[in-house]
Predict the 3D structure of the following.
Amino acid sequence: MTQHWKTLTDLHHQTADRSILSLFDAPGRAGTFSAQTGDMLFDYSKTNIDAETRSALIALLDAADVAGRRDAMFGGAPINETEGRAVLHTALRNLDGPAVLVDGADVMPGVLATLDRMRAYATQIRDSAITDVVNIGIGGSDLGPAMAVDALAPYHDGPKCHFVSNVDAAHISDTLRGLDAKTTLVIVASKTFTTIETMTNARTAKAWMQENGGDPGTQFAALSTAADKTAAFGIPAGQVFGFEDWVGGRYSMWGPIGLALMIAVGPKGFDAFLRGGQAMDLHFQSAAWDENLPAMLALVGIWHAQVCGYGSRAVLPYDQRLSRLPDYFQQLEMESNGKGVQMDGSPVEVSSGPVVWGAAGTNGQHAFYQLIHQGTRVVPCEFMIAANGHEPDLAHHHQLLTANCLAQSEALMRGRSLEDARANMQAAGLAGAELERQARHRVFAGNRPSTTLAYPLLDPFTLGQIVALYEHRVFVEGVVLGINSYDQWGVELGKELATSLQPVIEGTADAAGKDGSTASLVGFIHQHSA
Ligand code: F6P
């Protein structure tokens, strides 16, 4: 791989000062440097990628055998090598697709049977007196369904869904306050059913329900791979929806972890979401690399993060209902590819996954876009926009939203020269030294890269496409970097130390063996705790 990285680095150095805008002098750039599947368009023409760079990037895919790894993943091979597991979230949306074999056994009958049970249960809840659903989970057992429930608000016709994740008592207290325990369903979503935050919140919710006239025996459901633990918690098997360890936490919203979403939008809406994911799977498996959305999204990300060295990436959906999407992508990308060693234990050759952050447009424009436009760091931006909103009576809002989205990518690329800034200042009546001083503050370097994902409407199918697109993007990046995207050992050390600190905080053990800072902080907290 080293030679491939070197070629790309050379290309970057040769072209770094080139104007992105000048690339549009060649006719048809927007069409040539974009990819489409169905009604979804990924435009990466506002980047410094040209035909030679794209070929060199695509060579990375072949060198890393992305196609072989992709087929191995879809085929049920244990590509999560550090945990010896298959990676088969794609099986959860493989509706009427082919058999998927794990250790020689087809997993699809089990997947489809669980999906049928979910449909029946969701329908039963939607037809019942339940008014509110509280999903208790964290990380992948929270971010996906919470994001999707917000995203598909126009399709809600079921009970209202709430999400509790943080072990901070504020979260569960603020959520349960005002809910009627007699008409609330609590879903405990935890792959392992051991996560301390989730289990602490679940016990608190159970006590609340018992104290307030509800019946945890009928009003609790569990989503987990650990049937023994859900039974020990007291949740009857009929209210438990299981899945297998080949579904990673941050990839799990397509199965039982998506139950809250299914209850909110109904089984038909959930099916459409699965169909969107499945459509992206088929596209990823069949499209040529330069027409393949996940591959090109990954390669643009690699170009910016690993070759150009830009340390972060902003996800900027111009859709209020996607305001949780940056959080969701943060876990998806950073927990998957934020690693320092390759599959074989050797160090990664280049930097690993970038920092992913962002917010819904236009809110971000009035917060952090200043840095994106004029700060000294380059932040590649990933814009998203629907051609239509869900509020036809307020179409002018959507037009304004769209104009802002397109204006931002144009401004990032075009910038504003000192000459233009001077002319503007002159027109405003300034002259001399004051004009010079003011003009310099109004210069935009420009030449800042961005991509735009555009689609007709944020409906369940499209949301499924978007989520699967980013899942596969993370997969491709991980394969190219040689990383196992499907483990998360980096979260363990903090968990272990929290367990050892708990008795110290509770006052049943002392801080012996802790570093001076930690011991001093424990002392301060003890001194000030009531
Ligand atoms: O943060 C680590 C992690 O294991 C995530 O990968 C996972 O999504 C989250 O914790 C929750 O885990 P569980 O679903 O087992 O409670």
Q: What stands out?
A: The pocket of 6-O-phosphono-beta-D-fructofuranose is lined by residues 138-141, 190-192, 195, 198, 249-250, 335, 488, 491 (CB under 6 Å).
